[in-house]
Amino acid sequence: MALLNCIECSHIVSDKAYACPNCGCPVSFLSSEQKKHKPRKRRKYKKLPNGFGCIKKLSGNRSRPFAAYPSTKGFHNNGSPVSQPAIGYYEDWYKAFDALQKFNSNPYDLVHENITFNELFELYFKDKYIDNKKKKYSQSSIDSTKAAFKNCSVLHNKKFKELRKYDLQRVLDHCPLKHSSLELIVTLFRQMYKFAKENDIIDKDYSEFVKINIPDDDESGEPFTQEELDILWNNKDNKTVQFILIMVYSGFRIKAFETIEINYKEKYFKGGVKTNAGKGRIVPIHNSIFAYVLNFNPNKFKAVAFRAKKFYPMLQQLGIDKTLSGKKHTPHDCRHTFSWLCDKYKVDELSKHLIMGHSLGNDIEKSVYGHRTIDELRTEINKIQV
């Protein structure tokens, strides 16, 4: 038996009665009306443990009404908790619970979820150039980093976590600057992604997939003079000078040394970049530089960094940073110097082309029948005198 309130006079009536004894209102009508207006029970979910966070159902007609919030990290001076941004918004309570569970197993800084390219750059720049007391960077290095950042203006206000390979590649493809400037942008991308990964801001490094789609415009150049070579040899105890001499007496482009293979037993390089003829070629190590090659580690070599931080400052320090025509010596001038030395000491023409990775073009005789053993190439390259 249950007691009901009469909708006519509010008198208490048994549900077993035929009608309200006070006003005569039928109980069957009363019962059906009260059942119709019976308040809907609120669905109960299990209680979350302390420190787990909370799930709130937001008002209004939403497609994802359940918000998952992490546990409070602190309190204001007045005792009220510091509000935390939601981890996310979900279709039902259980999806919100799963998100909280994943978050608690691997917490991440929610502030970093919305960090922009510009904001991340500021953190990266401060970490590398301001807070780092162990290493002092040159002003040219700082200026190069700032210039590269400026050339990425289209990315500045975008969330870093939402960037993809397409966004980065588009910056390079639409930049009207020279190859060397694009190299600085690629370097910035890679260093920022490395910094972001170290700080658990991203999981995937999209910078490793971008590439520069224009030819290297550093092919032109002027060789070092004999007087400039003499200055380099007079400073051969310096490690930077030693690597410059390796470039001069091997003929490789500077970029090739990042991935070059060295056979110390047979004394030869294997590698190369750019052309099909140049890639994977074998070049005997000139006798004069073998001792320096023993101290070289390709795994730690970065062409862009060496060019900016060591090559140019060293040439300037030695007073040989300008060519005879007044232009700035570049790393590619080492390759031009090797070509000049081959001509000066009458290195066999075919051997020179094979060592430098030149395409033999339409010369059918040389391209089909032109062969040299490694010992023959070694004999030719060591014609070059120091």
Write up this protein.
The chain is mainly α and 386 residues long. Helices cover 41% and strands 7% of the residues. The chain contains 15 helices and eight strands. Strand 1 and strand 2 form a beta hairpin. The chain is elongated and about 130 Å long. Residues 361-370 have low confidence and may be disordered.
Concise summary:
The protein is mainly alpha-helical and 386 residues long. 41% of the residues lie in helices and 7% in strands. The protein contains 15 helices and eight strands.
Tell the overall outline: elongated
Which secondary-structure class do the elements indicate?
mainly alpha
N to C succession of SSEs = EEHEEEHHHHHHHHEEEHHHHHH
Helix % is 40-55%
Portion of residues in beta strands equals 5-15%
Mean pLDDT: 84
The largest pleated sheet is described as: 3 strands, antiparallel
Stretches where pLDDT is under 50 for at least 5 consecutive residues are: 361-370
Please report the distance between the alpha carbons of the first and last residues.
114 Å
Main sheet: which strands, in order across?
A: 3-4-5
Would you report the number of β strands?
A: 8
Query: What is the C-alpha radius of gyration, as a whole number of Å?
Result: 37 Å
- Count, helices: 15
